[in-house]
Specification:
Layout lengths: L2 E4 L5 H14 L7 E3 L11 H6 L1 H13 L4 E4 L7 H7 L4 E3 H9 L6 E5 L2 H14 L5 E6 L10 H17 L5 E4 L5 H10 L4 E2 L1 H15 L27
Parallel strand pairs: 1-2, 1-3, 3-4, 5-6, 5-7, 7-8
Length: 242
């Protein structure tokens, strides 16, 4: 099985800090490729950042399907571009936040998200409203750690742990969902120090994608209609094909 994980930013340093974590999470028999984007912002922390990656993300997803990959994982916890990518390709597409919540529903009633910065927390709140998951949300907290600092676990673990502890003690969380896939490097530390399940969105996205392939399932075309073809103007879209 060959899934492709697309980290939806253009930071080479961030990509290199995450590749081994992703490969360790892959099950036996999974031939995983992890790539970043060739252009775009170095991190995804706002709606503007999400808009800026659109063309590069769609192009990478289309390339993955044409190259014969079995599934695509958008390796982000604000779920950027998820609907657009599902409209574009036929192979299964998963992403971090949606996958993490689907697993969390089997682990507890009240789920809290701990993410990096307030901008991301607001994106996550909007996304959970779209999914209609908000009635299971205990809280959405942020550790005030920018995404590009997350690959320094010694600097970030305590800040994330503090917010997770408050989510449990003050907000009544039964489960903690990490609100950034860059937090994979501290997930194990958090599990050792907290008494509730901690769900890594990167691992959740990969695991769900491989499960869908194993089950022979992909997204419904009754829901994710293919885009209507039309002319797209501008030099940046010179190579664009539906």
């Amino acid at each position: 099985m060959r899934p492709k994980m697309i980290i939806p930013n253009a930071s080479k340093d961030f990509l290199s800090s995450q590749i081994e974590e992703r490969r360790r999470a892959a099950r036996q028999g999974v031939d995983l490729d992890v790539v970043g984007l060739e252009e775009g912002p170095l991190s995804i922390e706002s709606g503007v950042d999400e808009a800026l990656i659109g063309h590069a993300l769609l192009s990478e997803a289309r390339r993955a399907e044409r190259e014969g990959y079995d599934a695509i994982v958008i390796d982000g916890a604000t779920d950027p571009g998820i609907r657009a990518v599902r409209e574009l390709v036929d192979i299964p597409v998963t992403t971090g936040l949606e996958s993490a919540f689907l697993y969390s529903f089997s682990l507890g009633d009240r789920i809290s998200v701990v993410t990096s910065v307030e901008n991301s927390a607001r994106l996550i709140k909007d996304r959970l409203r779209i999914y209609e998951f908000q009635n299971r949300v205990a809280s959405i907290r942020f550790a005030s750690v920018p995404v590009l600092d997350l690959h320094h676990p010694e600097r970030t673990a305590e800040a994330i742990l503090k917010e997770a502890r408050l989510a449990i003690d003050e907000d009544g969380a039964d489960v903690i969902v990490l609100g950034n896939t860059g937090m994979s490097t501290v997930a194990e530390v958090l599990r050792e120090r907290l008494e509730v399940p901690v769900v890594d969105p990167a691992v959740a996205g990969l695991t769900l994608a491989t499960s869908l392939v194993h089950m022979g399932l992909t997204h419904s075309r009754h829901c994710y209609l293919p885009p209507l073809e039309k002319d797209v103007l501008g030099d940046v879209f010179a190579d664009w094909e539906y």
